[in-house]
Automatic annotation (TrEMBL):
<dbReference type="InterPro" id="IPR017871">
    <property type="entry name" value="ABC_transporter-like_CS"/>
</dbReference>
<dbReference type="GO" id="GO:0005524">
    <property type="term" value="F:ATP binding"/>
</dbReference>
<dbReference type="InterPro" id="IPR050166">
    <property type="entry name" value="ABC_transporter_ATP-bind"/>
</dbReference>
<dbReference type="Pfam" id="PF00005">
    <property type="entry name" value="ABC_tran"/>
</dbReference>
<keyword id="KW-0813">Transport</keyword>
<keyword id="KW-0067">ATP-binding</keyword>
<dbReference type="InterPro" id="IPR003593">
    <property type="entry name" value="AAA+_ATPase"/>
</dbReference>
<protein>
    <submittedName>
        <fullName>ABC transporter ATP-binding protein</fullName>
    </submittedName>
</protein>
<dbReference type="InterPro" id="IPR027417">
    <property type="entry name" value="P-loop_NTPase"/>
</dbReference>
<feature type="domain" description="ABC transporter">
    <location>
        <begin position="14"/>
        <end position="245"/>
    </location>
</feature>
<dbReference type="InterPro" id="IPR003439">
    <property type="entry name" value="ABC_transporter-like_ATP-bd"/>
</dbReference>
<keyword id="KW-0547">Nucleotide-binding</keyword>
<dbReference type="GO" id="GO:0016887">
    <property type="term" value="F:ATP hydrolysis activity"/>
</dbReference>
Amino acid sequence: MSVGLPTTSTSPVIQVIDLWMTFPGKTAAQPIHVLEDVHLQIREGEFVCIVGPSGCGKSTLLNIIGGFLKQSHGSAIVEGKPVNGPDPGRIFVFQENGVFPWLTVEDNIGFGLLNHPEAHRRKQVQHYTDMVGLTGFEKSYPRELSGGMRQRVEIARALAAEARVLYMDEPFGALDFLTRLKMRADLVRIWQEERKTIVFVTHDIEEAVQLADRVLVMSRRPATVKEEIIVDLPRPRDLDDSRYLSTRDRIFEVMGMDIKTGAETNV
Ligand SMILES: Nc1ncnc2c1ncn2[C@@H]1O[C@H](COP(=O)(O)OP(=O)(O)OP(=O)(O)O)[C@@H](O)[C@H]1O
């Protein structure tokens, strides 16, 4: 399925055309076909979540768009050019352990600005430290912070480095439930202030509906984009709103899961 842009959109910042990915298996006769015929477009400033069954290839797709893996076939075009390796303007935020343990919060956040004038660096660091709610912790080391605070450091570091695109792979996956809820709300606020393009991979369908402009639902492996669901709801989203709940239920349905029991259905 080809998924695209709302009709009012400008040209896409990310474009994936007929993308296939196969990993060599343990033997040449058993290659692992992961992605097949993936097409997608993401416009500047859009917040897109990718969901799908475990092991279907979500991280693989993100790693190809991010320049860490080379596809077997097809094109990944970002900011008008074929992806040919990572780019400092497009930053990954992973589940955990992305911060440098030997640097303080402020040095972590300012890490991408080492070549910039000191005054600019300090201003950026303070601005993003405040934005992610870490004011007062500038001199702390990561070991002195909670998991949620460490994720805030990572997000602030990406923003301070003036990333235009954020690739987020289960960034809140290691956090407890309440911290996840808080981080989601904060990420929405930050995205509304910054309007970066965000591509966010998650297992969590509720998280996707809470965050995204569009949710891309992938099929089982070899995966393609099975359906795109537009989440046209005002933010911050009311998790009891019937439209929120019906969007969530639709994604469960597309994924072939029974919302009440978690059992797979025959979709
Ligand atoms: N470098 C690799 N070499 C061989 N196989 C790989 C490699 N990377 C991923 N795979 C395989 O590709 C498939 C897709 O993996 P991927 O991590 O992209 O899925 P995912 O949807 O992100 O998974 P999850 O939801 O569990 O995080 C898996 O079967 C995995 O074992």
